[in-house]
Design goal:
The protein is of the alpha+beta class. The chain contains 20 helices and seven strands. β4, α13 and β5 form a beta-alpha-beta unit. The protein is globular.
């Protein structure tokens, strides 16, 4: 029996003993469900017994799962309002700090400022399956934040804990292939977020041939739940389109002939872990795995979507003139990719705009607009090539006019690129991409004289 199973069984045993000690709960009316749930949270925080605490934690998580959407909102609101820091303890700690700016006084202030929610979540995590339940709880919370910003304090506390609990040191990399248990393979089909996996045959084509690899991170507390996975194609050259990689009739490449490893799909699996970083560790570890297995692989690249491109191009940000807007209107025709004349006009307009989108366009906070770009550039990759009509799917045309990009992971440049992007916001890009931006500036209309 592995350590995770042993620990899970131990928690279940402790919790069952605790349930015997606290006895059965009396029946409740629906109207008092949230109030009773909050009261049980207070009980959990005030108790000291390990067995009874585990049993109460199970009851809280079971009762939470039974809540409807309005009741969950009320529960999260109670967590925000009633389970913050102990104000009296904070006042004493502040007075202590005012008298004595010592390390001990700083530690007192630190612990006094901690919201009681954090300890509540820690104790809920002691229940069997508690980690997964809390991840699911945060997935319920995230959609509520826009309409109820006061709940952000609850989200911040959960994210703080998850950043520690899902630290890279706890993650396990697993190679996924056709021998992997079916319950995990089924989740890959469900969680694939970039290029839909249509059925089991489609999945097999992605993980079973000799020129395909798939890797996923797992956590001991979520044994059969992948956190994030990456699909890899081994090729002879850098690909410019995704369709040939996914084609049913393609001919596999012998691994000893492959010189390029292509990360063509990276999918986060747990909504409740949004904001917890896994991908940068995943890419770097997979690179090391592939280098050990296939030392002839020389190039590590992505074939990535550009999900925010079309929305940006069609906004006022690029400052397109009337003629450019007329050309852009051609993209409203569903058949434009097969119309050579329309395609040529759009390509001449859009490729320089794509370069501008990556190299110059920014959000209000100064960050690169595209989320996929932020991920790879933040990992130290270089924007290597823009692939015109690399994705002709309906989704690809809708989001980015079918364009894709290759990000190159040059192992000698990764750290330098990462530092430049993190500290100066500098985007590492190939000379070909930079030239496209120069073409955009050269074609831009001169300002109208005042």
């Amino acid at each position: 029996m592995d350590n995770a199973s042993f620990f899970s069984d131990l928690l279940n045993t402790i919790a069952e003993r605790g349930r015997a000690l606290i006895g059965a709960k009396p029946p409740r009316g629906a109207g008092g469900r949230v109030g009773e749930l909050v009261a049980r949270c207070r009980d959990l925080l005030s108790g000291r017994g390990e067995a009874t605490g585990a049993a109460i934690a199970i009851e809280i998580l079971d009762d939470y799962r039974a809540l409807d959407a309005p009741a969950r909102l009320a529960f999260f609101s109670a967590l925000a309002a009633e389970f913050g820091p102990d104000r009296a303890a904070m006042t004493r700690a502040l007075e202590h700090w005012g008298r004595e700016t010592s390390d001990a006084a700083a530690a007192d202030l630190h612990y006094a400022a901690e919201p009681r929610r954090l300890e509540l979540f820690r104790r809920l995590n002691r229940a069997p399956g508690g980690t997964g339940a809390l991840v699911a709880m945060r997935a319920d919370l995230l959609p509520l934040l826009r309409e109820a910003p006061a709940l952000r304090v609850v989200d911040r506390d959960l994210l703080h804990l998850f950043a520690s609990w899902f630290n890279r040191g706890f993650l396990v990399l697993r190679h996924i292939d056709w021998r992997t248990p079916a319950n995990i393979l089924e989740k890959l089909i469900r969680y694939e977020a970039v290029h839909q996996i249509h059925d089991w045959d489609d999945l097999r084509r992605r993980i079973d041939p000799p020129d395909r690899r798939c890797y996923a991170f797992f956590h001991p507390a979520l044994v059969d739940e992948p956190l994030i996975f990456v699909e890899v194609a081994l090729t002879e050259t850098m690909p410019a389109a995704v369709a040939p990689l996914l084609a049913q009739t393609r001919l596999p490449v012998a691994p000893d002939r492959a010189r390029v490893a292509v990360f063509y799909s990276i999918s986060n699996c747990q909504t409740g872990l949004a904001g917890v970083t896994f991908g940068n560790f995943l890419i770097k570890q997979v690179v090391e795995e592939l280098r050990r297995e296939l030392p002839r692989i020389e190039t590590f690249v992505t074939l990535s979507p550009i999900p925010g491109l079309r929305a940006w191009v069609e906004s006022e940000e690029p400052g397109l003139d009337v003629d450019a807007r007329a050309t852009l209107a051609l993209a409203g025709d569903a058949d434009w990719p097969d119309d050579a004349q329309a395609q040529a006009k759009l390509r001449k307009l859009l490729e320089p705009l794509i370069a501008q989108y990556f190299l110059q366009a920014r959000r209000k906070d100064g960050r690169v607009i595209d989320p996929v770009a932020r991920f790879h550039l933040g990992n130290g990759a270089r924007l290597e090539r823009i692939d015109w009509l690399g994705d002709r799917s309906h989704k690809g045309l809708r989001e980015s006019f079918g364009a894709m990009v290759n990000y190159l992971y040059d192992l000698d440049e990764i750290e330098r690129n990462h530092e430049a992007f993190a500290n100066q916001g500098e985007v590492a890009a190939s000379s070909a991409v930079k030239k496209m931006l120069k073409d955009r500036k050269r074609r831009a209309p001169a300002p109208t004289p005042a």
